[in-house]
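Pilot study result, target chain (258 residues):
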Amino acid sequence: MQRESDNGRIRVPKTSELVADQIREQIIRGELNEGDSLPPEGTLMVTLGISRPTLREAFRILEAESLISVVRGSRSGARVHRPSTELVSRYAGYLLESQATTIADLYAARLAIEPTVVRWLATANGDTEGMAKVKSVLKELGDMLTDNRYDEFIDNIAYFHQVLVEATGNKTLSFMNRMLLNLARTHQNDYQRRHPRSTEERQKSIRAGFKSYAKLIHLIENGDVEEAVEHWRLHLRNANETWAARGEGERIVDSLSG
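Predicted structure:
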């Protein structure tokens, strides 16, 4: 296998990189599962025909990618970890922050994604496997509201948005949305610390939000496509007027707090 380096020259990969490639492929394809232990070093050295330094360099590569963890001095060998959505979305957040991506940019992306999701779901009259989970989360939010568990309700708002997008079954869109939600949650937590509201104001906002979520589900299940899309677009715009208001929208996304 040959690889192109940054200067355009063809580079022959080191043996350790090839070994890492082989183990990585087994993890990605599901041949190795979360929590599995790789064979002991001595066994791998014989099986792969490599030296201990080469194997340990391959392990360092995979550890840096969070695909394995190695307990030094342990006889159990390296432990396998499947790729993590949270880890990758966190790294993507670092990239967005390094590019000086603003809060306004972040919320504009959400506004582009979720109304499209609502259109898909309403066109299917909510007849997707994931909609049952959306309704379940809505019920849980309702229980929190009834029991006056307002902080818990606020903590689960992002989860409602997450399962709404996941209800489409589109994994690519769900991953992108998860990344945006993680960054949005960080900003919202920071905003609320800087702009505390009275208990009455919070209760009013929470009850209005829950009523909006319930209306959305009703419109989706009735197949009222355009009304559902417009309702959710208005919901998001109203939210954005707070989270990405003047003085907030110009802030750079924060991928390191939370």
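One observation from the pilot: The first helix runs from residue 15 to 28. A full batch analysis is planned for the follow-on phase.
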